[in-house]
Amino acid sequence: MIVIKSLDDGTNRLLAVIEFKSMHGSVGNILNNRTEEAVGSSHDLWKAFEHGAFGASRPFLGYIYVMSDHPSNLLGIDRRNMLFQPLEEYMRFPRTRMQLIMRNVRNYS
């Protein structure tokens, strides 16, 4: 979704760009791909902004991830077959971030 404001002088100002990313099925399998796409798109947009493509005001940039309620998204990660063990900072919490998100979504549904 793109939000543009037409100014009195006949020019347009880009106010916001919001991209929707869908994740159907197991989020763990596609989260990295969606994250790479979001980082790449935002990098391209900011480079264009630096070169004056959108005027002087910095636009809002957002991403909305739309996820399905898939059973595999509620499972933990099997860490036994990893090439390198995760850093201690990532091991302190018993639930993954995605589990907490999905639980909160269910509570508000």
Automatic annotation (TrEMBL):
Pfam families for this protein: XhoI
Protein name, entry field: Restriction endonuclease
Organism: Paenibacillus phytorum
